[in-house]
Amino acid sequence: MKAIIYCRVSTEKESQYSSLKRQEEELLRLAQQHGMDVIDVIKEKASGYDFDREGILLLLSKIKDEKVDAVLIQDETRLGRGNAKIALLHCILKDHIKLFSISHNGELQLSESDSMVLQIVSMVEEYQRKLHNSKIKRGMNRAIKNGYRPERNLKNKGVHAGRERIEVPISEIVRLRNNELTFSEIAATLRGFGYDISKATVNRRYLEYIEEQKKMIDMNKSPNANM
Q1: Smallest Cα–Cα separation from 171: which of 137, 209, 212?
Q2: What whole-number distance in Å separates Cα of residue 92 and Cα of residue 24?
Q3: Which residues are catalytic?
């Protein structure tokens, strides 16, 4: 099991240095007890009420990039306090990362109030996702109502996934954009028909098209154009 140790103290006082060192030593022992492979130890001096902390941001990044299985902390207040603690617990636990603490001598046991708040946060997030999907569906229906016919225009429909699918006909992007769809809605619409394309790619292709059109207009306006 790959794990990261996170230690925090709230002030820059010299007396806090020993606390950081003690946290690290105790957490290393806890990791050894549970047969964990500690790939990093993150230590920082910052207020638990601050969310924008270099150490905690590094922790969240490593969880995503290095496929970490567990995070070891002294107790949940080391992650943060108040709303910051709840937000960070949610970020970590929703990725199925296990939290181990010294205070519980093993896997962290959340309080009843914290568990209740996290359940509410998860419910709100789920309804936000459903609302987002409804907006995308509305955009697709609006495009079809305004004349978009994917069965005629998407040449690669039904073709196995692959790099070639990134080559979406620019005419379709322009058509959907002219129908007042956002870049996010366009990307979602095209993905629904098998194109592996992101909002950023749609945006870039559209801007490239606009730039090419401007160049063509400028060339036609040039005095040498008719020579």
Answers
A1: 209
A2: 20
A3: 10
The DSSP letter of residue 66 is T
Per-residue pLDDT tens digits for 33-80: 999 999 999 999 999 998 889 999 999 888 887 789 999 999 999 999
- pLDDT of residue 161 exceeding 50, the answer is no
Question: Which tokens in the block code for residue 67?
Answer: 């496929």
Task: Choose among 193, 204, 194: nearest CA to 149.
Answer: 193
Distance CA 187, CA 195 (A): 8
The CATH number of 2-110 is: 3.40.50.1390
Question: pTM here?
Answer: 0.58
Instruction: Specify whether the CB–CB gap between 75 and 10 falls below 8 A.
Output: no
Nearest by Cα to 169 from 141, 192, 150, 147:
150
Angle, CA of 17, 89 and 71, to the nearest 5°: 55
Q: Which residue ranges make up each domain of the chain?
A: 2-110, 129-222
Q: How confident is the model at residue 163 (pLDDT cuts 50, 70, 90)?
A: very low
143: helix, strand or coil: helix
